[in-house]
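Thread: Newbie trying to understand structure tokens

Hi all, I'm a second-year student working on a class project, and my supervisor (Dr. K.) asked me to get a predicted structure for one chain before our next meeting. I've only ever worked with sequences, so writing a 3D structure as a token string is new to me. If someone could post the tokens and maybe explain what I'm looking at, I'd be very grateful. Here's the chain:
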Amino acid sequence: MDPNPKPKILLLQQQQQTLTLDDRISNLPDEILCHILSFLPTKYAAGTSTLSTRWKHLFAFIPKLSLDFDDSLLLNPHIDKDNNPTSLATFAIFIYNVMIVVYTNDLHIYRFSLKCQRDYDCLSHDGDSLVATWVHLALSREVRDLSVQVDNYNKDNEKDSILFPGQLFYCWSVMRVTISGRFFLDVPTVVFMPNLRSIFLDRVKFPNGEAVQSLIRGCLFLERFGLESCEFEELEVLEISSTKLKHLMVIDCKWDGEYEFVLDVPNLAYLLYQADGIAYDYPVKNLSSVREADLDIRITWDQLQDDSPHYEDTAFEFVAACLNVETLCLSQKSLLAIHQYWQSKKPTFCNLTTLKLGIDDCGWFLLASLLESSPNLEVLGFTEGFTSCSLFPEFVSCVTKHEPQCLSSHLRKVMIEDFTGDEYELNVVEFFLKNAKVLREVEIDCNLCLADDKKLSLISKCSPICELVFT
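---
Reply by user tm_fold:
Sure, no problem. This is what the structure looks like when written as tokens:
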């Protein structure tokens, strides 16, 4: 028996104190703990509730509660490759458990994000979509930021879609909406979303064009609107009319047959429009406020074969309506669609300072007129490289006869992407170095060898301060 037990007792007391001190985090105030949890994904923030009673449901009291449900973080990609009901149920139960905490404590959700790579509706016994139910629960908690992304939904029936909860169209609290996946938006005639500022829709389906206008009409303060790869069951007129809209994107939406694309957006600042085919008509009521336009109007083969020049005229009038832009991006296909009418009508873009082009032979044919139409141009970019330069000599001949004002007094930068160093490309660089009198920089995106680099550096320059920059 130890004659002096005090050292052992003291040692045990010190160890107990050490263990107590090690859990200093739990002793922090709730406000600080909630702030720490706000930086964690929902999976880990909710997982802290199992640590002790001190942490139970603490995550639900995070200021501006953000719920981020992503099945890629919960399901093992190597084990759960198929729609295994047990694995799917794990994710579904996790969502329901979190939402029970939210409802039990009568909490509001600031941001709700749902990303699903699997089809969870196979778990439903009443035919209702579980995804739609989860979204409905979030909308009932006065959500401000809603993001829903569903991939690989019902792969066996690509025509099937999830009916998005109609509750969305009367949600007064939501400010930002992003919906991506095979959802059907049955937009009512009357929509009331007074606080919505931004909505982006990807791969959703509408019954008709009127549904889009009803949606926009019910969002009194909508500033950003985007459609990408959306489908329409019927479409005669797609009208986007709003006095508040500042940012608009319409990208590769799908519809069959002829249609009109009507724009009445007097305060629009940015326009991105990409379409495989030219609309039958573009009744543009107001695009005078647009400061940046990115246009990729891809005329189809059938439209090119049309005996009448209707489609080319329509495409030209649409581009010309952006008369006050400061930055204009035109794809190769856009130049093909507008080149005939641009040559004859030659609109003037007095405010244009940045022009970015995808250029081929048709583009060289048109470039001289584009430079002439842009007297204050400062930046010229070739964003798709040079697929062909066989008509480049014609461009040089036109510019030599009628020198554009921008070449002599404003053009300061030329940007070339996908530069390969071929002889005809070197001729393009040489032209601008020798003819742009106030040029300051030629930026070339390439993988040139040192010999090509040296060859470019030896070209004489009209502007002594011009530098070649390789990226």
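A couple of things are worth pointing out once you decode it. The mean pLDDT is 82. The longest helix spans residues 85-104. Feel free to ask follow-ups in this thread.
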